[in-house]
Amino acid sequence: MRALLVALLLSPLAGCSLWMPKPDPSQAWVDLKPHGETQLQALAVDGKALDDGRYFQVEPGSRTLEMRYRFQVEGSNIGPASAPLPRDCKLTLAYDRFNAGARYRLVAGGYGFRPWAKLYDEHQYVLARAEEKGCGNLAER
Fold first, then answer.
1. Which of 38, 49, 127, 137 is the most exposed place for a label (fewest CB within 10 A)?
2. What pLDDT is attached to residue 125?
3. Span of the secretion signal (predicted)?
């Protein structure tokens, strides 16, 4: 009975990472790492929508990744006594050398109103930078 109680108490700490699929060694795996209290979501690879927004798993070669990044612009970046402003942005990143079995990391953040994202390899080298494709209500796009 105690073991069941401990398991129930610890299960929320495990989060969704327990349910992540295992990487396919014939493809490249891209982990998503947003900064702070923000949200980064995988949308599509080469224009094809993804079923799971928690990661990218792509065929080797040249690929275009589409992502959604949600963050908040602090009031101090807007003007005196301004309230924080939520931003919902779409970014696209093109990279032409994805390797099978390799792991990559896509890190996103924001400078004031502008979002950014960078693709890193396992040695922490920046391989590519994303382009902003627009911010606003992406549900209507």
1. 137
2. 97
3. 1-19
